[in-house]
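Whiteboard transcription, Tuesday session. T.W. wrote the C-alpha cells on the left side:
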C-alpha cells in the first residue's frame, strides 16, 4: 500500500500516518505491537523518552527485519535529569532505539524540566541535525509564545509542531496554525480521534456518521467514524499520529490511506459542529 508523504520545510518528507508508542503502549513493552504494525504497512513510528519504551520500540524495529531507511522514526526529549546534557540524553535514546539516527527529534513540551531552557536545547538539536543524528528537528505542544522564544535563537526553523488537534480544537487552534503557516512549520496531530474516545455524544458525532455513510455508498467499503476523523486531518495535510493495542485497529487506520478525500462541504460541516465545544484531554495550558 503506498504511503502518503507530506513535505517538511527542510526538504524532507513525513509519512502521513504515524503509529505511536504512547497511549495504549505507554510504559509497556512495545516490541510485538511495533513489529506487527510494521508487518502490516506502518512506516512511521512515534516514540518518546517519556513513554519509557524506546528500548522495545527499537526491538520491534529490529525484529521487523525491514531496511532502516524505509522507516520514519521520531523520538522526543521532555526532561533532562540533573547534570545530564542534551547530547547525553539524546545519545541514550539512539542507543535504546538501536539506531544511528532518528528521522525526527522533537522537544516534547516547553513545560516540565525544559521550561525556560528551550533555546539552549534547540541549539543542541541544530547540531544533531548537522551531524546527521536527527534528519529533521521540531517541537511538540508549542504555543505562539513558545515559538517566539525559540525563534530568537534559531538558525533552523522547526519542521514540525506535534499538537493535540481534533474538531473540538479546530477553532481555538487557528491562530497557532496561521502563525505556523508563516514559517512553513507542519502541524502533526495527536488526539485526533478524541471525539470517539473521550467525548462520545458530542455535536460532531452525527456529521461523522453521515460522512461515513456517504463514503460507504461511494466506495462499497466498510468505513468507520475514526477513519472519517483521519480524513478530516488528511484534508488539512496534517499527519495523524495515533496508536492502538489492537491489530484490527491498526489495519483500520492503514485502510484510511485508500479512502477518498472529504469534500470541502463535509470538512466545513465538521468544523462548524466542532466549534460548538472546546475540549483538551491533556495540556490545558496550551490555551494560556
Ligand atoms: N506529543 C505529545 O505530547 C503526545 C501526547 C499524546 C500522544 N502522543 C502520540 O500520539 C500517539 C497517539 O496517542 P493519542 O492519545 O493521541 O491517540 P488517539 O489516536 O487519540 O487514540 C488512540 C486510542 O484510542 C483508542 N481508539 C481508537 N479508535 C477508537 C474508537 N473508535 N473507539 C474507542 N477507542 C478508540 C485506541 O484504543 P485501542 O487500543 O482499544 O485500539 C487507542 O488507545 C501516542 O501513542 C503518542 O505517540 C503525543
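and on the right, the sequence the group agreed on:
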Amino acid at each position: 500500500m503506498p504511503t502518503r508523504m507530506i513535505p517538511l520545510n527542510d526538504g524532507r518528507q513525513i509519512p502521513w500516518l504515524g503509529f505511536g508508542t504512547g497511549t495504549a503502549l505507554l510504559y509497556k513493552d512495545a516490541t510485538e505491537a511495533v513489529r506487527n504494525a510494521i508487518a502490516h504497512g506502518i512506516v512511521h513510528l512515534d516514540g518518546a523518552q517519556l513513554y519509557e519504551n524506546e528500548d522495545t520500540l527499537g526491538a520491534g524495529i529490529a525484529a521487523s527485519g525491514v531496511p532502516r531507511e524505509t522507516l520514519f522514526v521520531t523520538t522526543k526529549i521532555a526532561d533532562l535529569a540533573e547534570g545530564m546534557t542534551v547530547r547525553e540524553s539524546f545519545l541514550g535514546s539512539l542507543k535504546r532505539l538501536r539506531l544511528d539516527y532518528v528521522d525526527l527529534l522533537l522537544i516534547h513540551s516547553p513545560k516540565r524540566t525544559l521550561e525556560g531552557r528551550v533555546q539552549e536545547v534547540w541549539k543542541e538539536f541544530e547540531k544533531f541535525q548537522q551531524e546527521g543524528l536527527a534528519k529533521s528537528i521540531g517541537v511538540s505542544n508549542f504555543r505562539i509564545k513558545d515559538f517566539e522564544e525559540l525563534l530568537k535563537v534559531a538558525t533552523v526553523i522547526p519542521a514540525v509542531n506535534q499538537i493535540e488537534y481534533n474538531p473540538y480544537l479546530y477553532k481555538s487552534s487557528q491562530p497557532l496554525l496561521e502563525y505556523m503557516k508563516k514559517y512553513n512549520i507542519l502541524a502533526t496531530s495527536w488526539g485526533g480521534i478524541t471525539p470517539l474516545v473521550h467525548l462520545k455524544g458530542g455535536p460532531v458525532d452525527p456529521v461523522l456518521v453521515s460522512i461515513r455513510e456517504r463514503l460507504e455508498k461511494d466506495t462499497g467499503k466498510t468505513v468507520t467514524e475514526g477513519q472519517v476523523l483521519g480524513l478530516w486531518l488528511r484534508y488539512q495535510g496534517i499527519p495523524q499520529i495515533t496508536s492502538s493495542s489492537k491489530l484490527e485497529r491498526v489495519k483500520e487506520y492503514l485502510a484510511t490511506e485508500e479512502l477518498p478525500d472529504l469534500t470541502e462541504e463535509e470538512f466545513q460541516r465538521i468544523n462548524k459542529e466542532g466549534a460548538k465545544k472546546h475540549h483538551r484531554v491533556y495540556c490545558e495550558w496550551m490555551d494560556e
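Someone added at the bottom: DSSP finds eleven helices and ten strands in the chain.
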